[in-house]
Amino acid sequence: MPNPSENPIKITLEDLERVEVAEKKPEAPAPLPGESKYGSIKAAEEPLATGQDRGSIFLQGWFYLGASGLIGALVGWGICEPAFVDGPRQAERWGNIWLIPILVATLCLAFGVAESVVERSGKKAAQRAALSLPLGIVFGFILSIFANVVYGIGVMISVEAGAATNKNPAIWISRALGWMVFGLAGGAVYGIVGWSGKKATYGMLGGLIGAGLGGLLFDPIALATHGGAPSRAVGFALMGLATGIGIGVIESALKDRWLYVTSGPLAGKQFILYKPVTTIGSSQQCDIYLFKDSNILPQHAVLENRGSRLQISAVGPVYVSGLPVQRQVLQSGTILQVGRYAFRYQEKQR
Most exposed residue of 47, 62, 215, 335, measured as fewest CB within 10 angstroms of its CB? Predict the structure, then answer.
């Protein structure tokens, strides 16, 4: 055997300069938990889908409630107008007797189903219609009596003060006060079908303001259109429109906690979190119904009020600020992702 010391290995500086070190390629990341079952959303490789902050105007509460109020009022007017008469025989015509109760009922129906229609939940819309229509009929008859009393007192006071015709603004104010009662009914039903007392309170406040504005403008419209069917159509439509917008604006202005959809089919919609427990999923029975995504479970996640904090508990894959979570307390401004939907959680500044 040769002696190693007789043939030593020699390494020069030139040999070292020629040495190249191969870069180690990063290993592919391991699949996220549940990826094979629910689909892949790789937070480490793909940016969070936040979409645009400004979604469709059709998903804004003030818009779809205003549109539903406009449609509801015109439907109520259209049902009764053919049997409505101006003149001394008003008390004998069913159109005159039923106009206000039916108008209130169709408004309540429209407000009751508007949100479910926008969220594309036909089952929930049918359930809310079945509740809001009878409530609207009852409220319509009861509150129409009360509204006539308020209007009659207002007119009497106005006449005593020298207002002889409906050209006097005092008469307009009297009608506005009477019509505020109708807005109260619409807002109340809007909250009742949503199973939320706070939602009903906000709805009634918005309804009072909106219907009052519509009532204030009814007589000027009648004067401009020379009375009759056109004035009633325009006046009631304006009342329904203003009532819906009022409900939407007040509800949005007074909200405490909400999820704003920044990406997905409902981008631009805000879900105001009224309940202690809010469910999210692909079932139409969920409070937040997410459609057109087979990766979303029937009940995918639950939001729970924990004192002054909101906590999300995940059943399926949920990402908070790009990271998968099972249970997480949310901070205002946090981005959540559930399937193809992204949300921004917001709290009212205190």
Answer: 47
Return the sign of the alpha-carbon dihedral for residues 232, 238, 241, 242: negative
Backbone phi, psi, residue 45, to 5°? -105, -30
Q: Which has the closest alpha carbon to 29: 48, 47, 46, 42?
A: 42
d(CA 342, CA 344): 7
60 DSSP 8-state letter:
S
Q: And the tokens for 239?
A: 């009342």
Cα angle 93, 219, 147; round to 5 = 60
Cβ(278)–Cβ(294) below 8 Å = no
Distances (CA, A) of 289 to 38, 67, 139, 207, 335: 18, 22, 30, 26, 18
CB 200 within 8 A of CB 190: yes
Query: Token pair for residue 74?
Result: 């015109």
Per the CB < 8 A criterion, the answer to whether 186 and 239 are in contact is no
The token pair at 255 is 């909200």
Cross-strand bridge partners of residue 338 = 341
Residue ranges of E strands in the chain: 257-263, 270-272, 277-281, 288-289, 301-306, 309-320, 323-330, 335-338, 341-347
**Which pLDDT tens digit goes with each residue over 219-278?**
888 888 877 888 889 889 999 999 999 999 999 999 999 999 999 999 999 999 999 999
CA 209/CA 66 separation, integer angstroms: 13
- CA–CA separation, 153 and 178 (whole Å): 10
Q: Report the alpha-carbon distance of residue 122 to residue 91 in Å, rounded.
A: 40
Q: DSSP character for 46?
A: S
Alpha-carbon gap, residue 347 to 333, rounded angstroms:
8
Which of 15, 14, 17, 248 shows the shortest CA–CA distance to 110?
248
Task: Say what the pTM is.
Answer: 0.80
Sign of CA dihedral 156, 159, 164, 166: negative
